[in-house]
Design brief:
The chain has 230 residues and is an alpha+beta fold. It folds into two domains: 123 residues, NADH:ubiquinone oxidoreductase Nqo5 subunit (Beta Polymerase, domain 2); 64 residues, no CATH class. It has five helices and eleven strands. The strands form four sheets. It has a five-stranded mixed beta sheet with strand order 1-2-5-4-3, covered by helices on one side. A two-stranded parallel sheet has the order 6-7. A hairpin with a 6-residue loop joins β4 and β5. The longest helix has 19 residues. The protein is globular, with a radius of gyration of 25 Å. The N and C termini lie far apart (64 Å).
Length: 230
Amino acid sequence: MSKAVIEALTAEFGDRIVETNDFRGDDEARVALADWVPVAKFLRFNPACRMDHLVDLTAIDWPEREPEAERFDVVLMLRSTEHGHRVRLRTRVADGANVPTLVDLWAGTNWAEREVWDMFGIPFEGHPDLRRILMYEEFVGYPLRKDYPIEKTQPLVPYREVPGLAKLPPFGAEEGQPWGRIDWASRLAGTERHVSPAIAVQVGERRMISDSEIAKSENSSTSSATKAEE
């Protein structure tokens, strides 16, 4: 089914489609970096394609590839919710070369391009907010490059004081879920807030509560509701 997209690309761009192939039903086209945006626009808006669903955008590092000017592949994976087509668009990129952003075509590429920048060091020209998304800003290097040393150590980074955010001590065993919890005492009092292992953003007094306190609050609430029904 996706071969119709490849045929449409070939008819429109001719030999500017450098290479096509398919693997297990997924069709792919490779283009030069200069044609990255024009071909992406065609895939997005041409009636025969309508590739409106961004599946993913990622990169692959080939440090031993010749010529060295084509070290990286940037891969765009798309799907059409209208036609059911799936297709990959690929281009080769030199280390340090700018890839034009696709944020104006698929909003979801915003974070995907940031991840590729963070992990591979591939910059996206025109991106509205190109900064690290997984690693901290002071991180040295790009951890998904195949020549990144696994034994590499990073410099210590001082703790950042952020105005308006209170730093909490690490949660103990009784404090529960690692991704944060609901302060049921506050919820029952009508001032719900979420407590996270790192920071708490709330109105009023900061307070960490334990599982036993949550259980007491829940039991008290249940008892009150039962009495009200009686």
